[in-house]
Design a protein that fits this description.
Elements (H helix, E strand, L loop, with lengths): L1 E5 L6 E10 L2 E11 L2 E3 L7 H11 L7 E3 L5 H4 L2 H8 L3 E3 L4 H6 L5 H7 L8 E2 L3 E6 L2 E9 L8 E5 L4 E5 L10 E2 L4 H12 L5 E4 L3 E4 L1 H24 L4 H9 L4 H5 L4 E2 H10 L10
Parallel strand pairs: 4-5, 5-6, 6-7, 11-13
Antiparallel strand pairs: 1-2, 2-3, 3-4, 8-9, 9-10, 10-11, 12-15, 13-14
Helix pairs in contact: 1-3, 6-7, 7-8, 8-10
This protein binds zinc ion.
Length: 284
């Protein structure tokens, strides 16, 4: 699946929606965004060709001068190598993601099946800021480290317009699954870091355009913290993690089985119970 849509007129941004299709249905959609002459993220590997074609056509009207990646995950970096090689676009990635992308991502089988394996590339490390020319105006996006979902994760923050380009930081207000290597408490800290900036609009790789960004971020923090509180109460009463998970979040879903338990509700509960500073931090 490959589809583009313009966001409302007050936001000169194009959303590029992409997914690998299976039996005619999109699997796990993700979005990249064109913001002026900046392309943020590049979708999964199966749509790389379409993305290159779209960018080539789009550049006949207005140039795209660089690609910025928010983190190293395959559904965000999949088109970057082709854009670099075929269109000569510079690719910028968080410094911690540069060696991973240069060596090639090592991924579990289920992730290769769902999203495909990205080609190796040679990105340049992102500095503290990245410029974008939007509607004839020069904007400066600050690069905000926001680990938790991935240790390489960054958001882009434009203080004049109060835009937050949030990659996978937000995704959904009530995320119920966690991969083993993720750290929900570090993720909550990152949410607080961007909340302190008081963004007006969040441009999310999964939820799309989120107005009233602060309220959305607060809801997400409250959901995880509330869940941690309830889990602790049951744990003190002697409940095992499996039973707490079933009670608070219900049965495991499709992705638990596809990922052999890597992507699970139980990981979330375990991590919430472990408290800050315990889990996560591995590069995958
Ligand atoms: Zn991700």
């Amino acid at each position: 699946m490959f589809r583009t849509e313009s966001l409302p007129a007050d936001l000169p941004v194009t959303r590029i929606r992409m997914a690998r299709s299976f039996l005619g249905r999109p699997l796990h959609e993700v979005s990249a965004y064109r913001i002026g002459d900046l392309l943020v993220d590049s979708g999964p590997p199966p749509t790389a060709r379409r993305l290159v074609e779209w960018c080539r056509d789009a550049m006949d009207y207005r140039p795209i001068s660089r690609v910025v990646l928010t983190h190293h995950h395959e559904d965000h970096v999949g088109g970057a190598a082709a854009l670099q090689v075929e269109l000569g676009l510079p690719v910028l990635a968080p410094a911690s993601a540069v060696p991973i992308l240069a060596e090639g991502l090592r991924m579990p089988v289920y992730r290769r099946l769902v999203w495909g394996s990205p080609r190796r590339m040679r990105p340049e490390p992102l500095g503290e800021e990245v410029g974008a020319r939007v509607e004839g105006e020069d904007l400066r996006f600050q690069v905000i480290p926001t680990p938790g979902h991935a240790f390489t994760h960054v958001c882009l923050w434009e203080p004049t317009r109060r835009w937050l380009v949030s990659g996978d930081l937000y995704v959904h207000p009530r995320v119920k699954y966690l991969r083993r290597i993720e750290d929900v408490w570090v993720h909550i800290e990152s949410l607080r870091r961007v909340l302190a900036l008081q963004p007006e609009v969040m441009i999310c790789a999964h939820a799309g355009l989120v107005r009233d960004a602060c309220a959305a971020i607060e809801r997400k923090i409250a959901w995880w913290e509330g869940l941690a509180e309830e889990a602790r109460t049951l744990r003190v009463q002697g409940w095992p993690v499996r039973r707490i998970t079933r009670r608070l979040l219900g049965r495991e879903g499709f992705f638990y089985y596809v990922s052999f338990g890597d992507f699970s509700k139980r990981n979330l509960v375990r991590n919430l119970l472990a408290g800050p500073g315990v889990a996560g931090a591995a590069p995958a």
